[in-house]
Every structure is written in structure tokens, then in C-alpha cells.
Amino acid sequence: MNIGTDKKIQWCPGCGNFAIYNALKHVLECSIEEGRIKKENLVLISGIGCYGYITNYYHTNSFHVLHGRVPPVATGVKLANPELLVIGFAGDGDAYAEGMSHTIHAARRNTDIKLIIHDNGVYGLTTGQFTPTSPRGFKGKSTPFGNVENPIDPITLMLVARATFVARAYSGDIKHLEYVLEKALLHKGFAVVDILQPCVTFNNTYDYYGSRVYRLEDSGYTSDSYEKAIEKSIGSGDKIPIGIFYQKDTETFEEAIRGNLNFFLDREIQNVADFINSRI
Ligand code: SF4
Fold this sequence. Notes:
Elements: H1 17-33, E1 42-46, E2 61-64, H2 70-80, E3 85-91, H3 92-98, H4 100-109, E4 114-119, H5 154-160, E5 165-170, H6 174-186, E6 191-196, H7 206-210, E7 213-215, H8 226-234, E8 240-247, H9 253-279
Parallel strand pairs: 1-2, 1-3, 3-4, 4-6, 5-6, 7-8
Antiparallel strand pairs: 5-8
Helix pairs in contact: 1-6, 3-4, 5-8
The structure holds iron/sulfur cluster.
């Protein structure tokens, strides 16, 4: 099973996008071969950024949509056909700037979609402007004297927005990235994976992350407590945890909508039956 295409990959050599692409490709191919996913039920949606080309490199159903608009399109696809496995890709600009409100609302609704965020802390496609996850002091095209804004914390943000699966991964640890992606795909509900990803051309963070990330799973952490997840996401010190911060199974947006629809239809059918009976 190979779900790749023969299109020439356009990213800079060493870009973290390669690891994310290959990790997801491996997880999807294994899942299809083992019967957990049907290839025809797979829908991939990407927004705008260097990473956005990713949908060209998988041989599946896919859409390339407007900047920041991946969650609403993914939600529409999932509502139209709940059998589909809908995976959205977004950049840190997509997810936390232009599309910030869409990301938050998809999380709080618990739509059964997966959102993979290529978080490289920079707008690479437009040659190096700062994003909401760029650190304070970051120097780029639009901040030659250093970014004066505080970065947001995606993990805390998604937890507070009530996402039911919240994880962080690192493109430099591919085995662990595959593990997290596989768990995210299996989750019923909104799953968000924020992937720390170096942009070798405009924000090369390989050394920075390489010396700081550690696997949550290796530290005995379990992902069943919301309070502990919040505490862990805020963190302290220099180290950066990667792994599943929080996971909870609960009703999805589609299930809630379908419940309302069934109630409405039952009521209307009863009204029609009452009307007919009253005329007999
Ligand atoms: Fe990757 Fe950065 Fe090159 Fe874009 S500019 S392809 S994000 S390394």
C-alpha cells in the first residue's frame, strides 16, 4: 500500500514538513492495510502555507482551502458524511492567527475531526514574518528589532477550549510523532496535535528543540486528568514535554446534532400522525 503521489515535493531540504508528511503517511498506510481505515473514506484538508502543499502528496480525497478555514470545511465534510475520516492540516498562522476562532469553536464543539498543526513559529511561505507562536525577541522580516508580543501557548489554549484530545509532538522525533498521530486518528472527537517543526530557512529550531523536548509517556504522566493537563501545559523550567496531555471520550458534535434531528423528526412524524387520526 502506497498512498503517496509522484508529484515533486517542493519543501526546502531539511524542512520539518517532510517528517510530518512521512509519519502520517506511514500511520495511514498501516491503518489501511490493517483494515482500521478505508482509503475511500479518507478526506484531507489543508490551508495556506508551505505545508499546505501536503495534500498534493497523498493520493486521497482532498481539498486545499482558504487561510485559516480548515476547521469549518472539515466540520462541513464530517457533518455531510459521518463515515468519513476527516484530517485537517494547518500552520501556526492558519490555526492561531487568521483561523484562531475557527480552531477554538471546532474544539469546544468536539466535532470528530483531526487537526494537525505544523507549528514552526514563522510564516515561511511569505519569507519569515512572525506568527502568534513566535517567541518574544524573534527577528524576522516584519520584526527586524525583535518580536515584542508574547507567544500564545497552543496546548493550554486547546485545553481551555475543551478539546477532547490535546497533544504536542516534535518533527525531530518521528517514532513518537507516529505514536501520537495514530492515537489522534483513533480518538472519537476533536483531536488536535500541535507539532513543533523547524523551518530551516527562516526559523531553524532543531538545536533549540533537540536539547529541550522530552516524552511525557516516559515520565509516568497519564492523560486522564484535565487539571493535571492544564498544570503540565503551563509548565515550568526549560524543558518541553511532548505527548498526549489530555484525552476524554464524550459526545461529538455530529452525535448531538443527529440527536436533535431525530427528536425533531419524531415530533413532526407524531404531529402528522395526530393530524391524520383527527381526520379519520
Ligand atoms: Fe519549510 Fe521553511 Fe522552507 Fe517553508 S520556508 S518549505 S516552512 S523550511
